[in-house]
Amino acid sequence: MGQQLSCIIPHANDEDDNPIPDFIYEDEELQLQEAILSSFVHSNSAGETSGLRILCRVCTEEKAPEHMFRHKGCSHVFCQDCISKHVEAKVDENIIKVTCPDPTCLTELEPEICKSIIPSKVFDRWGNALCEAAVQEEQKIFCPYKNCLAFMLNDGEDPIREAECLSCRRLFCAQCKVPWHSEMECRDFQRPEARKRAREDMALIELAKNQNWMKCPNCKFFVERTEGCPHILCRCKFEFCYRCGSTWSPSHSGCQGIS
């Protein structure tokens, strides 16, 4: 019959005149679990510890030592599944300093130590968040487009104004933290009335891009084609091709512009 060890230490008899305080039991239990886990780590034969079980204080299940996790900075032992879920939950909450699940312990877990038991996507997000936090605030640049928001780093000494997002490849102003305002200087854009108008214009440009609208080359008004051929007669009487934006002519055909 295999060796069976319980990590739950029985409470003292209620009739005992000198009951031992609970914290002593808890301390002894931690020492016992640490000893069991250490014996597994240093064991040369899996059979020597095949009957051992360690209690996880999160899920309250007893599991084999090879399914347990203990950080080098503290003596608390939890199962790998619970540690994985604990880390993922904290990363989802944008908490990058993940501590031991024990509420009384402030030991910080490290990504490299947890790498083998957490999903790769969680590991990458955790690592990226830690790198981002280590960067000085003035070096941080975020893409202003709401469907991107990519994080970038300005590792040069000079301030950046016109920038291209490395993820979505769209232009933006790194100083104003908005989509690129090509026809306006930053000092002008910062004026409340100009900023409001520019935001409205850029919102319209973004909408036009999403709806596949074309701007008339002559009057600069946006035109939407709902059906029919690409030959467009604008309200300014200018004729152009909706596919490529060039001036329309009787011989115009076969362009490879937008559809």
From TrEMBL:
Keywords: Metal-binding, Repeat, Transferase, Ubl conjugation pathway, Zinc, Zinc-finger
GO molecular function: ubiquitin protein ligase activity; zinc ion binding
Required cofactor(s): Zn(2+)
Ranges of residues in domain RING-type: 52-259, 56-101
Database matches in SUPFAM superfamilies: RING/U-box
Source domain of life: Eukaryota
Transferase is among the record's keywords: yes
Gene3D superfamilies associated with the record: 1.20.120.1750, Zinc/RING finger domain, C3HC4 (zinc finger) (3.30.40.10)
Catalytic activity: [E2 ubiquitin-conjugating enzyme]-S-ubiquitinyl-L-cysteine + [acceptor protein]-L-lysine = [E2 ubiquitin-conjugating enzyme]-L-cysteine + [acceptor protein]-N(6)-ubiquitinyl-L-lysine
GO terms for biological process, alphabetical: protein ubiquitination
SMART domains named among the record's database cross-references: IBR
Top enzyme class: transferase
UniProt-listed Pfam families: IBR, zf-C3HC4
Enzyme Commission identifier(s): 2.3.2.31
Keyword Zinc part of the UniProt annotation: yes
Family annotation (InterPro entries): E3_UB_ligase_RBR (IPR031127), IBR_dom (IPR002867), TRIAD_supradom (IPR044066), Znf_C3HC4_RING-type (IPR018957), Znf_RING (IPR001841), Znf_RING/FYVE/PHD (IPR013083), Znf_RING_CS (IPR017907)
The family this protein is said to belong to: Belongs to the RBR family. Ariadne subfamily.
Biological role stated in the UniProt entry: Might act as an E3 ubiquitin-protein ligase, or as part of E3 complex, which accepts ubiquitin from specific E2 ubiquitin-conjugating enzymes and then transfers it to substrates.
Classification via PANTHER family: RBR FAMILY RING FINGER AND IBR DOMAIN-CONTAINING
Name of the featured protein: RBR-type E3 ubiquitin transferase
Lineage: Eukaryota, Viridiplantae, Streptophyta, Embryophyta, Tracheophyta
